[in-house]
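User: Hey, quick favor. My workstation is busy. Could you predict this chain's structure for me?
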Amino acid sequence: MKKLTILLSLLGLAGVTAAMAWSGFGSVAHAVTRIGVLGFVLTLVAQLLVDTLLALAWNAAFPKMPYRHLLMARLVRDAAATCLPFSQLGGIVLGIRATCLTPEHSTGGKGRTVVEWPEAACANVVDITTEVLGQIVFVLLAVTLLVVGAGANPLVKPVVIGAFLLTIGVAGFIWTQQRGGAAVRKAVGFLGRHIAGQWQNSMMDGADTIQERMEEAWSKPRQIMASASLHLLGWISSAGILWLTYRLLGAQLNFPDSIAIEGVTCGIMSASFLVPAGLGVQEGAYMTLGHAFGIDPSVSLGLSLLRRGRELCIGVPVLLLWQSFEMRALRRRESATVAAAPDVPAPLQANEPANSVETTRVG
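Assistant: No problem, here it is.
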């Protein structure tokens, strides 16, 4: 898996470089710099607003968890998937870890809330599932708008087939979460062996607990539907960021066409989830779809690079902040271990009289 990830990353970087060479490095640089500092900051603010909406969608499915804590965990999960050389699966694992680690400020100063890993894993899996439910509707809406706005497009048919297969896969995934206890245990065993081998025993012990958490979460359909609806709104808002970025780059694009481009791109990237951060895939999709709406490929490539820059500007500080939380938690555990250790008698000093210690001779 590690070798495959490295190979796909190198191929993606080669694809991005080739796309820049084909479009012309000067043209791409001009498109990127045209947005200006204030314009780029505006897109950063817009992205952070979308992130707060996605955390709200997560909180709708798990209202008992603190919102600020879920927001931080969501940012870590996204940052790991976009800024680190991991596939989407690696981002999920770090998201689970971030959900287990509850910062003190997320509870409003009322003490720390301990989130066990089965509960954290359940929360992340259910959130991802409701997000995909919203994504399916978003992709289908995008395909419809693509047909209306750009006419016949070679990407329409494969994206529709992909959305259909994704729907079947999500339906099976939901059934597994509700009733597939054996499948959950196998999945946990796989994660224990291949991703977190040192935690395998702990993970296997919590397999039954995570299944109970899953069944409890899916037994509340109103919360699930509310979460999926908010995720759909989040997907549409991401199309709004694309529309804003295109406008700042000087491209004339209406909002329905922005939904078409963003939705189909998301569908294509979902099919290539093994490629770290969708390197090369994202650039190719934006260039192809933008061209269908009369946008110069260099502008679409610049938009993709700006999106990656936006992800780095948000993701890197989030990962550094998360690491600081991890270090503080580690120091607290070490301090607690030292405090709980039994007192050990100090050794005799060199000048202490030997008769101060009672001795018993045998024989």
